Structure formats: C-alpha cells, structure tokens
Amino acid sequence: MPEDKKKLIVVIPMPNTYLLDIAGPSDVFTAADWALKEVPGSKKGGYEVLLASPLDTKSIITKNGFEITCQTKISEIDRPVDTLIVAGYSRLEMHKDHPLFKWLRDIYPKLRRVGSVCIGAYALAEAGILDGKQASTHWEFTQEFQTRYPTVHVDTNPFYTRDGNVYTSGGVSSGIDLALALVEEDYGRDIALHVARKLVLHLKRNGHQSQFSTLLQMHSMENSIAGKLHPWMMRHLADELSIEQLAEHSNMSVRNFARVFLKETGLTPAKFVEKLRIEVARKYLEDSDLTMDQIAEKCGLSGLISMRRTFMRHMMVSPSDYRRSFRTSLQATT
Are strands 59-61 and 166-169 parallel, antiparallel or unpaired? Predict the structure, then answer.
C-alpha cells in the first residue's frame, strides 16, 4: 500500500458486546488520523475506520442497549482491507456454521494484519486463524477458551499479544492498548504518544491483566473441602496454615486431604493458601489505610519483602503500584 494512502481499518462490532470494545479502538485510529495532520513532519497516510456488521442487518445492539448503525456489512466490502479487528463476540448468537467464520477464513490471507478485542478471540479461533498461535482474551475466559480451542496457546496475562500478523487483546479496554500499539507500529512512537495524550491514556499500561483477575473463584468451590474450610482459614490467615493443620481441621489424613483437595480445586493446599492471602491483601490495599507491614502481618505473608515477592509473582505488579491503581476513587480531597 502506498505510504500516502489511508489504511482501511475494518472493525466488526459483535451484537451484545460492550460499546467500549467497539468505540475504544475506533477512536484511537480516528485520533491518529487527525494527529498525522497536526504533528509537523509526520508521515502521510492515516486511517479510515469502517464499521462492518457481521449480520444480515447494519444495525447492531450493544450490551447496554445502544443501537449502532454500521456503514456496511462484511459481505459488502469490495476494497482492500489493511487491518481487521473483531470487537467482542456473541457466543450465544454465533453458531458454528455462521457465515462470519467462512468470511474470516477467506479474507485473512488478503489482510496485512488481523486482531480481536476481548472475547473477539473466539471468532478468530472458530475460523481457525489462531490454530497453533499465541493468543490473549479476557482473563475470565482463560480456562474455558483453552478447553474449547486446545490448539491455541492462551496467555491472558498480557493486555495484548502478537503472533505473526495476528493480534489479540484482553478484556474490553485492552482494545485501546492494542490500537495504540498498532498506531505506533505504523507511524512511530511520537504519533502514538500524541494520541495517548489527546485521549488522556497511558501509551503503555503498567502490569498485566492478572492485576484485574480474581485468583480464586470461591463460588465454584462452595461444596468442596476448600469451600468448607474457607471461613476458618479467613479467621486464621495470620497463622501458618500448614497442610497438617488444614487436614486436622477437616478430620482427614494428610495424604487423603492433599489428594482430594487437589482433585476438587486444581490447586495444592499450599498454593490455595498463598492465593487466598494475596486476595485478602488486595482488599486491604484497595479499601484500608493499613501500612504494607500491617497488611503483610494480617495476611500471614511473612513481612514486607515476602509479601512483595509473592504479590509480584501472582499479580505482576508491586503492592504499592496496585494500591495506587485500585485504591477507592472516593477519598476526600483537600
């Protein structure tokens, strides 16, 4: 494509998806197009953003009930596409023989690159585009996605992942991170930074998706040994909580306890306790004025250094950075 020609960015908005899945990347590319006119000495070219419906109608209803009207339908696109982005996915509405997947398979070889936002990775996987590739999606769907598409190498820690010319991003706002990265790839850091400043964004966010995820899904463990032990563990979190103590409290032998616990939760007792300590530490960091040392003591994390090391291993961000990012926004200002 000539350098002075606009790159056609086709965004496919899925029905019943979050508006930000669609609007976030679209606004980044639109802002970049303006930036190329505003910044002296910038490369020529820019972007044209086209919303293309995957349905028989140009009307798409988003998760919040807003109706958006696409300029076209995917079946009507008759010119070269530079970048294609699938924004979200409707697993209930997209059956396996939906025309979208054949269309994706057919157009993929003609694209410079293809990407997805949030669970839009499901559409790319269903079309076979992710076979054998690294991919990201929303952290909530890690296990389900991996089970459904075993040939895809899923990593939901990064905000976005690139494998060749295939780009996948994590939950909702990660589509903005991906779009900024694509702008930087096309037109350099200065233009991407100009866009980030214009939209009041971070050019590159600290940490990974893991800082947003829930380490333990207790609702799925209610009838397990872990679920029954959970209230007692919460009351004794500052104690050692060795496997011997846990087994004794469950009236089981250590060997049988360890076997059943792993089978029910997929975690060893020690790993479960560690994740529980971090989950509680997160809540203290978000909601309390306790010092780091006090939080480490209450959570049985053996001091500040140990707490930081364990927190970094699970959350990929330091406790202090986590507190700055997730502390309640309703504090009184002076």
Answer: unpaired
Beta sheet of 72-73, edge-to-edge order? 72-73, 47-53, 7-13, 83-87, 113-117, 166-169, 160-163
The total of other beta-carbon atoms located within 10 Å of residue 182's CB is 26
Q: What is the pLDDT of residues 215-229, one digit of tens each?
A: 566 555 677 898 899
Q: Are residues 108 and 144 in the same domain?
A: yes
Lowest mean pLDDT among 130-144, 185-199, 317-331: 317-331
One-letter amino acid of 117: V
Extract the tokens encoding 187.
């037109």
Beta-strand relationship, 47-53 and 72-73: parallel
Q: Are 193 and 222 in the same domain?
A: no
Q: Please tell me whether residue 201 adopts helix, strand or coil conformation.
A: coil
Range of the domain at 197: 7-210
How much is the pTM?
Answer: 0.73
Residues 247 and 99 in one domain: no
Tell me the three state secondary structure of residue 54: coil
Q: How far apart are alpha carbons 274 and 261 in whole angstroms?
A: 15
Report the amino acid identity of residue 103: W
Among 10, 9, 22, residue whose Cα is nearest residue 117: 22
In angstroms, rounded to a whole number, what is the distance separating the alpha carbons of residues 301 and 97?
A: 51
Confidence of residue 140 (pLDDT cuts 50, 70, 90): confident
Through-space distance between the first and last CA atoms of the chain, rounded to whole angstroms:
54
pLDDT for residue 22: 96
**Nearest-10 crossing angle of helices 189-198, 174-187:** 140
Which strand (E) or helix (H) includes residue 262? helix 254-265
